[in-house]
Structures are given as structure tokens and as C-alpha cells.
Amino acid sequence: MPRISRRTLLTGLGAGALAAAAGCTTRRPAPPTADGLSTGATPSPAQVQVPPVTVNAATGPVVVPGAPMRVVVLDTDVLDSALTLGITPVGAALAGRDTGYPQYWPASRTAGIRLVGPAGAPDLPTVRALRPDLILSNQARDGDRYEQLRDIAPTVLTQTAGAPWKANVQLHAQALSREAAAAAFAGAYQKHAGQVAQALAAAKASGRRVSLVRFVEGGGIRLFGRQSFPGTVLADAQVGRPDAQNVDQSDFEIPLDQLARADGDLLLYAVYGGPEASGANAVLASPGWQALGAVRGHRAFPVDDQLWFQGIGYTGANYLLDELQRFLGA
């Protein structure tokens, strides 16, 4: 099975989602970009106004405007959801150690988004100044400021990001009046995962166990289990995990002397924050790391943190599948 380029993936999946959305006459259409995704541009006054929608968020029922256009997103999962579903947010929060928007999105899709501060500590006056008609986030990030946010605009929170990302996308889609597009993306992703699983099986690579390691500034060495975003994507591709990571957890920290738990047939690692401040440089140079089978066998590879651990949504997940297939040589 040939590998899929990021631009081809965006074009194909975006076109499919837009085709699904086009059949829903109650939604405001928006023109596609060169990548096949909607720009989220403001509709003309002649278009039919969509009635308000009640969304069952983690905080309870929330009434939001139909087809909101001025959307602020306060975590990386809702950024992926909005952009995937054809809405360019007017404002977004980034993870605290990140300095730019995820590069798995073309710069043309993120160039006009106003940074509103770090995820978990957004600048509320900046959010208010953007005059949003909808705010999207989760309770883990913004539960303690929910009342302040809802005073600015209707605010829809999921419980958390990560493993429940597919259900979260459905909630985001409901709030954005893009349910048809979300269904199209969900179907395309499941088909893609099945194709990757078949390709891995044909290449006799499906039995290889993949380790996920993240070096986190202020958080040490983290291993990721099944209940994480990348863990769910690996499971969808029917890829196994090392015993230490084949657990119903999102992630857990290990000390340097337990580094053997990070080994696998394939080891993928990312750095959040600086390579020195996160401890990545020290660990990668340590005897324990050099002794890992994946490292000695040249099967340990760095990956993009903003994609593998923050790209929590259908666009990010499709890129993970494509990169996984490449790493496993199928």
C-alpha cells in the first residue's frame, strides 16, 4: 500500500467531509481551500440562519449559536477538531512550551489565528476582545474558569482530552454544527486504520510491539499506555504494545533506572519543551538508553510532539497512521 502524503491526506479527507456536509441544507457552507478544507469564512447575509443548538457538555446542557463562526479553542484537541471540520478559529491556546501552531497543518490554515495564551492559563481579556460566539475546551484545562469563560461566550467543555477523543470530536461537531462532516471523517479514519492494519499484516509487521516515550519538561520520562491518544491509534491499527505499556492508563512516569520499560520492537519518542530542560539530552546519552534493544537495533525514532501527543483528532490520527506505516516499513 503506497504511503499517503500529508497534503494528499488533507485533500482527500477534507473533500469527503465537505461532500457529506454539503448534503445538510441547514448548515452554512464555506468555500474549500486548496487543501480541500473549508475556510470557515463568514457567510453572506442572504444565507439562512441556523437555529441555536443545545449541546450536552460535561458541565450540562449548553445552548450555542447554530453554525458559530467566531470560535476560540483552548486546547490542542479542539484546535484539531475545528480545523478538521472546516472552521478556522479566531483564537487558540497552545501548550505552554510550544512556540507555534502544529506544523502538521499548513501555515495557511493557522496564519490568521490569534494566540490567546497557554492552554490551562488563557488570557481572558484577549479571549473577550475576540468577541467569540463559542468557546471550546475541556474540564481538565479550564474547569476552574468555566464561569468566567461562559460570561464571555457559550462554552462547551468535554471532561478531558486524550483517549476519548472520538467521542469528543462528536461533541465538538455538534457545537460547531458540523455533524455530517465529523461522520465523514470518522468513516474515512476507520477505513484508513483498516488499510494500515492490512498493510502491516501483509508485510509481517503487525506483530511488532511499539513503545511510546515522551520527555516532558518538568515531568520526566513518560511512557504511554492504551488509554492515550497515540495508544488508541496504535490499537486501531492492530499494533501491539510492550508489556509495560500494555495497560489501561494514559501515561506514567518512570525513573532513569527503569528505562528498560521503554524498550520495544519499535520505539518512538518525542520531546515537550527544550531537549536540555526536559532531560531528553541526558537520557539519550545515558548507558541505559544505549542498552535498549530498539536503540541498538536502530529502531528508535524521534517524532513530532505536536502531532503524536498533541494532535488529538482525526487529522492528527490519520497522520499517525501514515507515519506508523512508514516506521514499520509496510
Report the uncertain regions: 18-46
User: Distance N terminus to C terminus?
Assistant: 7 Å
Our Rg estimate from Cα atoms comes to: 20 Å
Name the strands of the widest sheet in spatial order: 5-4-3-6-7
**Helical segment count:** 14
Largest sheet: 5 strands, parallel
What is the percentage of strand-forming residues?
15-25%
Specify the overall morphology.
Answer: globular
- The mean pLDDT is 89
- Report the count of strand segments: 12
Helix content: 25-40%
String of helices and strands: HEEEHEHEHEHHEHHEEHEEHHHEHH
Multimeric state of these chains?
Answer: single chain
What class would the helix/strand composition place it in?
A: alpha/beta
List keywords for this structure.
alpha/beta; 12 strands; 5-stranded mixed sheet; 14 helices; 330 residues
Secondary structure blueprint with pairings:
Layout (H helix, E strand, L loop, with lengths): L5 H17 L30 E5 L2 E5 L6 E3 L2 H9 L6 E4 L12 H4 L3 E5 L5 H6 L4 E5 H4 L3 H7 L2 E4 L6 H12 L2 H24 L7 E7 L3 E5 L4 H8 L14 E4 L11 E7 L7 H5 L2 H4 L2 H4 L3 E3 L2 H4 L5 H14 L3
Parallel strand pairs: 3-4, 3-6, 4-5, 6-7, 8-11, 11-12
Antiparallel strand pairs: 1-2, 8-9, 9-10
Helix pairs in contact: 1-8, 2-7, 7-8, 8-14, 9-14
Could you describe the 3D structure shown?
It is built from 14 helices and 12 strands. With 330 residues, it is α/β, with parallel strands linked by helices. Strands 5-4-3-6-7 form a 5-stranded parallel β-sheet. A 5-stranded mixed β-sheet has the order 10-9-8-11-12. Strands 1-2 form a two-stranded antiparallel sheet. Strand 1 and strand 2 form a beta hairpin. Helix 1 runs antiparallel to helix 8 and helix 9 crosses helix 14. The longest helix is centred in the middle third of the chain and has 24 residues. The chain is globular, with a radius of gyration of 20 Å. About 9% of the residues have low confidence.
